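Appendix C: a fully annotated inverse folding record. The material below is reproduced so that readers can follow the format used throughout the book. The structure is listed first as C-alpha cells, followed by the designed sequence.
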C-alpha cells in the first residue's frame, strides 16, 4: 500500500481568458494491491486557478475525486473499472461544471 501527497504551484497555459493562469493544486492518492490479481487506486484533489493578463478577475476552484479497480484474470488479461468526478466552480459566466466519467477497460498483452 502506498500514499502520495503532491502539491504544485505553477503558471499554466490559459484557455483563452487572460495571458496566463496560475495554478495551485494538492492531490492525495492511495494505491493498494489486495493480492496478486486485485488492486485499486483512490484519489482526491483540489486546484485553484487564477487568470492574469487582462481586466478579468476570473478564479476557478476545482475539486476532483476518482477510484479505480483492476483485476488480473490471467497473466496476459486484465479488466478494470474507473470513476472520475470533477466539479469546477468559477466566477466566470458559463465556466462552472460538474463531470462524472465512468470507464471500463479490458487489457491484453502478448
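Designed amino acids, in order:
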Amino acid at each position: 500500500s502506498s500514499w502520495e501527497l503532491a502539491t504544485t504551484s505553477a503558471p499554466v497555459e490559459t484557455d483563452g481568458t487572460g495571458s496566463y493562469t496560475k495554478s495551485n493544486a494538492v492531490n492525495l492518492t492511495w494505491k493498494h494491491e489486495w493480492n496478486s490479481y486485485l488492486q485499486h487506486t483512490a484519489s482526491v484533489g483540489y486546484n485553484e486557478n487564477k487568470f492574469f493578463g487582462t481586466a478579468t478577475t476570473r478564479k476557478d476552484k476545482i475539486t476532483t475525486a476518482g477510484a479505480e479497480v483492476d483485476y488480473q484474470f490471467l497473466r496476459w488479461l486484465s479488466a478494470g473499472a474507473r470513476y472520475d468526478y470533477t466539479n469546477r466552480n468559477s466566477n466566470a459566466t458559463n465556466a462552472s461544471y460538474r463531470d462524472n466519467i465512468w470507464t471500463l477497460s479490458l487489457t491484453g498483452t502478448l
